[in-house]
Amino acid sequence: QKEVEQDPGPLSVPEGAIVSLNCTYSNSAFQYFMWYRQYSRKGPELLMYTYSSGNKEDGRFTAQVDKSSKYISLFIRDSQPSDSATYLCAMTPYGKLTFGQGTILTVHP
Amino acid sequence: SAVISQKPSRDICQRGTSLTIQCQVDSQVTMMFWYRQQPGQSLTLIATANQGSEATYESGFVIDKFPISRPNLTFSTLTVSNMSPEDSSIYLCSVEGAGATDTQYFGPGTRLTVL
């Protein structure tokens, strides 16, 4: 069993939809949680960073962490075609990132 | 966040040769990381490179195959040695984020194809 599980999709939604991306993990040592966005032929870009359980909002993006269930989510409101990318969850204790498989998202006009 | 550049951005190489990838950061950082991203896959950490010490390799990666240099706080190189088609991947360097956040910032990647 992988330490971090992420549905690879692909996920296709119409413009304006609410998108939910999810990861589960098995290692209780994970304390810091991140979401990265990777456009085709680019390096991953840090979108959100959270530490504690609960919600963190940044514009159209909301990161949610439930440590008791070992489950994290990224919500994208009012999705745009420019949000089309691969989304990677990542988590760590002590500087060593473990990534999910990535979810390919396409937002069509 | 730090600005990270990599050279080359892409290359096509012959089996049995070696390629050195450069990673340059616009600020001094203690820790730099090298990752591999195989086609359609997620990122796998190859090694962690701290300035002034030997790189620390993850399970499945060895120094003879992936020698790393870290001569100063803004620069690192990764060499992919004696390449085979299985080494065709995107190679990414990253640096630690500010503060005790465990975040990392990534370079644009080097797309390597081995024939």
Describe this structure in words.
The complex is a heterodimer of chains A (109) and B (115). Chain A is mainly beta and 109 residues long. Helices cover 0% and strands 55% of the residues of chain A. The termini of chain A are far apart. The model of chain A has no long low-confidence stretch (mean pLDDT 93). By secondary structure, chain B is an all-beta fold. In chain B, strands 2, 4, 5, 6, 9, 10 and 11 form a seven-stranded mixed β-sheet that branches. A four-stranded antiparallel β-sheet of chain B has the order 1-3-8-7, with no helix packed on it.
Number of separate strands of chain A: 11
Distance between the termini of chain B: 36 Å
Number of strands of chain B: 11
Largest sheet of chain B: 7 strands, mixed
What is the 3D shape of chain B?
A: globular
Category by helix and strand content of chain A:
mainly beta
- What's the alpha carbon Rg of chain B, rounded to whole Å? 13 Å
> How would a textbook summarize the main sheet of chain A?
6 strands, mixed
The percent range for strand residues of chain A is over 45%
- Class derived from helix and strand content of chain B: mainly beta
